Amino acid sequence: MRPNIATLITFILVVIGALNWGLVGAFNFDLVAALLGDMTIASRVVYGLVGLAGLYMLIVRPGLRTHDAHDVRPGAR
Q1: How many structural domains comprise the chain?
Q2: How far apart are CA 2 and CA 73, in angstroms?
């Protein structure tokens, strides 16, 4: 089953956020700020969209957090 467009966009935004935080943690380098400016309107929009994407994944897509019938690990349901 293919994901819908909202799930795909949300996934991309969550990955961008995760990579950005990884860079901040590992190298003290904020890629979003480097590309869009430090706390400019554009960077704040990106940060906001990443935050909303995280909430979407937690609230609207809870099935992504649970195991499903396709889990082939031993002992999985």
Answers
A1: 1
A2: 23
